[in-house]
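As the next step, I wrote out a protein sequence along with its fold in token form, included below for the reader:
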Amino acid sequence: MSKYSEIAEVLRKEIEQGKYEKAGKLPTEFELVDRFGVSRQTIRQAISTLKAMNIVHQVQGSGTYINDPRARGRAPESVFKNIFVICTYISEYIFPSIIRGIDSTLNGTGYRFNLAATGNKVDVERKILTDIIRLRECDGIIVEGSKTGFPNPNIALYKQITDIGIPMVFLHCSYQELPEAVVVGMDDRAGGKIAVKKLIDAGCRKIMGFFKSDDRQGLLRYAGFSDGVIESGLGLENTELRWYTTEDMVDQRLNLDSALLNHITDAGIDGIVCYNDLVAGAILQGMMNAGKKAPRIISFDRSIISNNGILTFESLGHQKENLGIVAAEKIRNMVEGKKETSVFLPWID
């Protein structure tokens, strides 16, 4: 438990025991700083936690006052009705539809949302989360985490946001360090398994997988890929793997050099499972440019890239707009004090 959470718990118990009833208010911030031996910021975070629990309220220039016992524990009415939506890339082919789903669900309900993109960079994510904590002007957050497959230095900020009472819904997946987080995503493990089965049913016997290593979606799709290969009896020895990161795709186009393209042909690779349509399109285009016959490809997201008149490959359908709708419904319920759980939508075959 963080220090400010410990202090908030001490003060909460003292309030319940009636220690401050005569005064009707808490000691000043400076008095609490002296008592607990912490910074003023820590005391402010503790008081914010009590405010989120509707135990106290503040009057500017006067102090922190204890609420009527009958009101304690009830979720206070939203002041801002403001939802913050954080995604990795706003313009990437998936997100316009997700945003459309969020907008259609919140529109007309009194809620509005602000949109920010991290570029899948933890330093940008850190600044956004820090500003949210500092400003305290949002009621809920819908967030696609950055680099969810790697240890994240911003976990403490996510926990701090939860501690001050701002609910969050994660898109696609959460961090391993936040096992209780509410997630709205696709069933990525099942998707990986479906993709392998399609290749095997089509007669493929030497299968390669291209997966993204810096987010948990890639790890889960690989887990499903492995499940499918083992359960089919094909065996892992008849598969090959290539891993890439966000930077590989953005900066180096997956390192699709002639050696890799030659290997796909020389090794007799007859089927490839790709992390998404961007990867599948890059591989197929590379094979075409090299004058090579491409293996059968199964991908994820069923975007325009998978059938754009030049490139054509099979891709499982992502429930993009529906995912945004479900995420918006869940965050609105959580802001209004209702309990929510994670949901993972099936891929469209």
Notes: The chain is about 40% helix and 20% strand.
